[in-house]
Amino acid sequence: MLGAAGVESYEGVEPVPPLAPSCEDVGMDDRLVRVFASPDTVAGEMMRARLEAEGITALLKGDGEGPYRAGPVYVWVPVEDEAAARAVVDAVSSGAFALDDDFDVGATDVAD
Fold it and tell me: Could you tell me which residues come within 8 angstroms of residue 3 by beta carbon, excluding any fewer than 6 positions away?
């Protein structure tokens, strides 16, 4: 028997609600633009993480997915974030986020 939401229901059993949209569907529509490509999966993951740290939703796709993680990867962002994303990609490529050679990671304080 179908319940009100079109979900099959049985007497005495609560119907399971429909699945939530996947993380790839949340906040992203069909208008995506590629802002980064790399043959290195790790570089793609790092760029996706950097964009997300800057508040830009990013999607990583390519042959680097799956169990073997070999092949090119591409980072896609919503078209409305393209300019900001390209600025971040350019800054990363230019070394603007790089640490100085004399930077002592062990000497930094971690904020609580």
Answer: 9, 15
pTM of the model: 0.63
pLDDT tens column, 90-109: 999 888 878 788 877 777 66
Tally of domains within the chain: 1
In a domain, 61, yes or no: yes
Backbone angles phi, psi at 37, to 5 degrees: -140, 145
Helix (H, G, I), strand (E, B) or coil at 97: coil
62 within some domain = yes
The torsion region of residue 82 among left (phi > 0), alpha (psi -120 to 50) and beta comes to: alpha
Backbone torsions φ then ψ of 61, nearest 5 degrees: -135, 155
Q: Is residue 83 part of a domain?
A: yes
Eight-class DSSP state of 54: T
Q: Strand ranges (DSSP E) for 44-112? A: 59-62, 73-78
Q: Give the residue numbers spanning the domain of 87.
A: 32-95
Residue 109 lies in a domain: no
